[in-house]
Amino acid sequence: MEKKYVAEPYKIKVVEPIAVTSRAQREEVIKKAGYNTFLINSSDVYIDLLTDSGTTAMSDNQWAGIMMGDEAYAGSKNFMKLQEAVREVYGFKYIVPTHQGRGAENILSQITIKEGDYIPGNMYFTTTRAHQEMNGGTFVDVIIDEAHDSANENPFKGNIDLKKFENLIDEVGADKIPYICVAVTVNLAGGQPVSMKNLKEVSKLAKENGIMVMYDATRCVENAYFIKEREEGYQDKSIAEILKEMMSYADGCTMSGKKDCLVNIGGFLAINDEKLYQKATQLVVVYEGMPSYGGMSGRDMEAMARGIYESVDYNYIHHRITQCRYLGDKLSDAGIPIVKPVGGHAVFLDAKQFYPHIPQDEFPAQMLAAQLYLKSGVRSMERGIISAGRDKDGNNYHPKLELVRLTIPRRVYTYAHMDVVADSIIDLYKERDKVKGLKMVYEPPVLRFFTARFEPLK
């Protein structure tokens, strides 16, 4: 059956030239960058799929809002607009603006976690786990087992395994669990959603044990779309209605506004508990700024408030998901191993299957990302053993998923760009037996995937 893909629900008003480089130029660039795509200058990149964080193309309405910036040090009217948008669209009472999502993670971790605590979650995220561990906590993965299998097509692979959560409560005691962190969607599982049924069940179990539910709401609109598409009883509900119900099962959330809020910078911590809010406002002054702007300017808060309303428009999110699916379908139809089903913000290549002859300790995903850049100037990123980092004893984590993330910025590229990406990967797959692994020659102590450097094995 012929697949249908919806056209872009926008017109292009401004264009930005992008680099077209030669193979010889890219060989110099990747060598200089230590085979780490994070260390490549954007001026040397043709199609940039490194991240969807802060790479959104803002709308004319948002750019108009930029001119309405009230840069008052305290009590900015743009903060009032942002607070109103968060309350109306997400339903949380209090908001603490931050410079981006990890600023919110830092504050949440400091006000809730004490030495010896455990924080269950549906698969780790790099910065989230780093903040939890730096404040004395231990992350415990309680995602369903299917999430660790790239070929499994469970429609809600982001779900919490309630038995795993319950076992942790029995093992360490509810008083050692300040909150459960639920990512909606789950980035490192391939952008996989959580069902509404699961969110209700998690909320019920947590409340029975006096444990808070905190969302990583970075891509919550994408999660709402998948619920509308896949979960019985939600087909006729609007994205806004589904999102509001999702949020009603949480006590708060951290938000990187650089994703589903459709802006280039900013984030926030949203919570319902007034005492917790007061603690957060004390810390935000130390790390970010006044409680009425945190780490954001007035104009950025205005753009975010407008972006929040735009994000729940069905035509926008339908195209967003469809564009990801288009790239995934092209690759899957060509026999390329990818994470299934295709998630909401990216297509993930299964590097273990792509390069089965390269051991995980020789970084197959990092090498695949480097090879893709060499082939066509397309920048992607590793999400495997390097991103997973080391445990407290200094040993490498060995995640079951060794992935390359092809992250699609919002409202930036066309289907023709996706064709270029797909064709490059298909060509690489034909040459896969010739490729060897990498060795790490520089490793920072924290979040090593950002700045580590590598050399090809001889």
Account of the 3D structure:
The structure is a single chain. Strand 3 (118-121), helix 5 (126-134) and strand 4 form a beta-alpha-beta unit. The chain folds into 2 domains: 23-52 and 314-456, Aspartate Aminotransferase, domain 1 (Alpha-Beta Complex), CATH 3.90.1150; 60-311, 3-Layer(aba) Sandwich (Aspartate Aminotransferase, domain 2), CATH 3.40.640. The model has no long low-confidence stretch (mean pLDDT 97). It is of the alpha/beta class and 458 residues long. Helix content is 40%, strand content 13%. It is globular. It has 16 helices and 14 strands. Helix 12 (314-333) runs parallel beside helix 16 (415-430). The strands form 5 sheets. The protein has a 5-stranded mixed beta sheet, with helices on both faces. A 3-stranded antiparallel beta sheet has the order 9-12-11.
Task: Describe, in short, the structure shown.
This protein has 2 domains: 23-52 and 314-456, Aspartate Aminotransferase, domain 1 (Alpha-Beta Complex); 60-311, Type I PLP-dependent aspartate aminotransferase-like (Major domain) (Aspartate Aminotransferase, domain 2, 3-Layer(aba) Sandwich). Strands 2-8-7-6-5 form a 5-stranded mixed β-sheet, sandwiched between helices. It has a 3-stranded antiparallel β-sheet with strand order 9-12-11.
Features:
Aspartate Aminotransferase, domain 1; 13% strand; Aspartate Aminotransferase, domain 2; 14 strands; five-stranded mixed sheet; three-stranded antiparallel sheet; alpha/beta; 458 residues; 2 domains; 16 helices; globular
